[in-house]
Specification:
This protein has helices spanning 5-11, 23-28, 42-54, 57-68, 72-82, 97-108, 119-130, 148-157, 165-169, 187-200, 223-230, 241-252, 257-266, 268-271, 273-284, 288-308, 325-338; strands at residues 2-3, 17-19, 35-36, 87-91, 112-116, 137-142, 161-163, 207-210, 215-216, 219-220, 234-238, 315-319. With 342 residues, it is of the alpha/beta class. Helix 13 runs antiparallel to helix 15 (273-284).
Length: 342
Amino acid sequence: MLLLASEFLNLAKFHPVIDVRTPAEFELGHIPGAFNIPLFSNEERAIVGTIYKNTGKEAAVYKGLELVGPKLSQFVSQAKEISEANELLVYCWRGGMRSQSMAWLMNTAGFRAHTLSGGYKGFRRHIRTSFYQGSNLIVLGGYTGSGKTYILNEISKLGNQIIDLEQIAHHKGSAFGHIGQAAQPSTEQFENLLGLQWLAQNSEDMVWVEDESKAIGRVFQPEPFYIKLRNAPVIFIDMPVERRIKHLVDDYAGIDHQALEDSLGRIVKRLGGNNYQEALLALAEKDYATVARISLNYYDKAYLYGVGQRNPNLVHRIEVSEESYSQIAVKILEYVQNQKIS
């Protein structure tokens, strides 16, 4: 059965999804949760493509059959390993011959196979369109080290919708943000992951996100989503610097000394030569608090500059001190309700 992207994604909540594109195509970006059962290897796809270009479709189809034929039983075996109900979903790049061929094989082998109209290209179009629609954002802001991610999670526990951009990006945003994180996805895959979370939100309620630059490490937020973020109301958590330093030390100290040194090197021009040398000396002596304090001199100024580019009427500052993250979350939500922020 041929399904629209919305129908396909709804069924994907219950049944496995097979991406039949090459491993290289899959690595660049895919529907989150999909299994890669490639009809062709990277090299085989190149061979078929060259034949198609130089000789024509018929010769390319014959070559494709020659390459795929010996793998048919393997494809079915792989499908049986991932499909408990003998129902699955299949897609390729445009919803053409590759996905149709795999669906035919699976139907012949006793599965009920569905294909995606427009293929992965159609899915990408569906995702990109979704960022122009949907819920209103409300942004949790604050200086580096304010524990915004922890507060965001507490807001979620209190029954509110959140999207954790840093979790999706595998990066905490600063020059140090990659430390202790898994490898980042491609920007395309980041958009795919974000898009599915965005589509899952109740559009009648606000969605909380952490204040982020357009670039989060090496990935970039989709333009329409970032515009929403920049034009949304901001709850600015004003937390004392000593508490923020302690938070940063707890997060980064002792994880990877060389990574910390390399990260300082990335912001040497912004820190200034003397501050950079002082930070390196402190790092060598494992005085992580001093490293954090010197780094915050730059990051605090940078964050204030970014906030200054927003509409001041949309920035709401809340001072916090010794409250726990859960108490801060309650304080924020009470403020939002009292001020009727939406």
